[in-house]
Write a structure and sequence with these properties.
277 residues, mainly alpha, 3 strands
């Protein structure tokens, strides 16, 4: 790797902020690649910019086709959803404050907070929940929507390339270490199986952007971020992400997860204004 004043300066700044050297190098290298792409200095950069713009436009199209409404789940449907979540996490049944139906491209959100947890120390934020469900809406294209209508089993596709690669690498290490039966509730919900990849992206992006909006310090290494999220778990996705990070991850796995965290830091949350209302 050739010397770069830009990269060396960024490494110095990142290390002053508390990042370990290897992580600072990786982040600075990615920042340099993005800068070159923005400046149009390399063919790779131009292609990356084109790919990013194509993803943005695809997300915009899918959001425009998404309907948003107050959740109309009956008590029976709510109980079924709670049982489904419990079966996936391995934990207790938990009220669902939002749901995305890919067959009808509808995001149902509990804006009226009918399903608010009984523990008042665990608030929900309907706008945060909506942002989570809108991420799911971008994960389903026309073919996956058709498959859902025909009752074929399918899974959402992670849209962010860095988070997609992070999930794939993490799943490999989970299998290699035989961790499938020892993950926490949201360890399972986010990475317990390949079918959970959509939740890995949705909870990661929403949890990180919510934490940043609340002023939580996410500038340190994996352990400090996990600690700060746990101590400031003010909303649903932050609590879920904090639970996910509280697993017996080794140093390699922590670095893999940090790639998804770093990518999520620059994500701009989706809003109801981008949808078909």
């Amino acid at each position: 790797m050739a010397r770069s004043k830009f990269r060396e300066e960024k490494i110095r700044i990142l290390m002053k902020e508390g990042y370990p050297f290897k992580q600072a190098v990786a982040i600075a290298y990615n920042m340099e690649k993005k800068k070159k792409g923005q400046d149009g200095l390399t063919t790779e950069g131009l292609l990356n910019r084109l790919a990013d713009r194509m993803r943005e436009r695809r997300a915009e199209r899918r959001l425009r086709r998404t309907k948003v409404k107050q959740s109309e789940m009956t008590d029976e449907e709510l109980n079924q959803m709670m049982d489904l979540i419990a079966a996936t996490t391995g934990g207790k049944p938990t009220p669902s404050a939002g749901y995305f139906d890919p067959a009808t491209r509808t995001a149902e959100v509990d804006f009226d907070e009918r399903f608010k947890p009984e523990d008042l120390n665990k608030p929900t934020d309907p706008n945060e929940i909506l942002g989570h469900e809108l991420i799911h809406s971008t994960q389903f294209g026309p073919l996956r929507q058709l498959a859902e209508k025909l009752d074929f089993e399918t899974a959402p596709r992670i849209q962010d390339p860095e988070i997609r690669d992070s999930f794939k690498d993490l799943r490999k290490t989970i299998k290699q270490r035989g961790m499938e039966d020892s993950l926490s509730d949201y360890g399972n919900y986010m990475a317990g199986s390949r079918s959970q990849r959509g939740e890995y992206e949705a909870i990661m992006k929403t949890g990180i952007t919510s934490a940043l909006a609340q002023g939580v310090d996410l500038s340190g290494d994996f352990d400090s971020i996990a600690k700060n999220l746990k101590e400031n778990a003010g909303t649903t996705n932050i609590r879920q992400l904090a639970d996910f990070m509280n697993n017996d991850w080794d140093e390699n796995q922590k670095q893999i997860i940090m790639r998804a965290i770093d990518s999520s830091k620059v994500f701009e949350p989706y809003t109801i204004e981008q949808t078909k209302r």
